[in-house]
Amino acid sequence: MSVTDPTTATQAATDATPTAAVLRPPVEAAAEVAHGALLVDVRSAAGRGAHGEIPGATLLDRTDLDALFGPAHAPVISIDTPVVVVCGSQDGSRPVAEALAARGYTVSHVDGGFPAWRDAGLPADAPAAPADPA
């Protein structure tokens, strides 16, 4: 019977497990961005216009990751670049964050989405158009 070093076994399991996207509170996500993570806003142009934008965020159509990141087999953005994804809610950012994590990126997405980011007092530009009251 062999005895396995628990540290080695844990590391092997970690290495074999794909990276999962992590849901973070807005302030923690902003700290990641401050430390060099790429902030990607996947809200529609209408959503950004109605609710505001995050200065410096990279805009991405959530259905076309290759437009920014390149194909999964030949990434344009280094796989070592941490990524923070924001949408109107975590339900919108989750699929994008999970898809990027499956490609090997270290990814977080914002708990509560853009409204929580804004409400936390983090940088956000005012809406370009008044929000629809309906």
Automatic annotation (TrEMBL):
<keyword id="KW-0808">Transferase</keyword>
<dbReference type="InterPro" id="IPR001763">
    <property type="entry name" value="Rhodanese-like_dom"/>
</dbReference>
<dbReference type="InterPro" id="IPR036873">
    <property type="entry name" value="Rhodanese-like_dom_sf"/>
</dbReference>
<protein>
    <submittedName>
        <fullName>Sulfurtransferase</fullName>
    </submittedName>
</protein>
<dbReference type="Pfam" id="PF00581">
    <property type="entry name" value="Rhodanese"/>
</dbReference>
<feature type="domain" description="Rhodanese">
    <location>
        <begin position="33"/>
        <end position="126"/>
    </location>
</feature>
<dbReference type="GO" id="GO:0016740">
    <property type="term" value="F:transferase activity"/>
</dbReference>
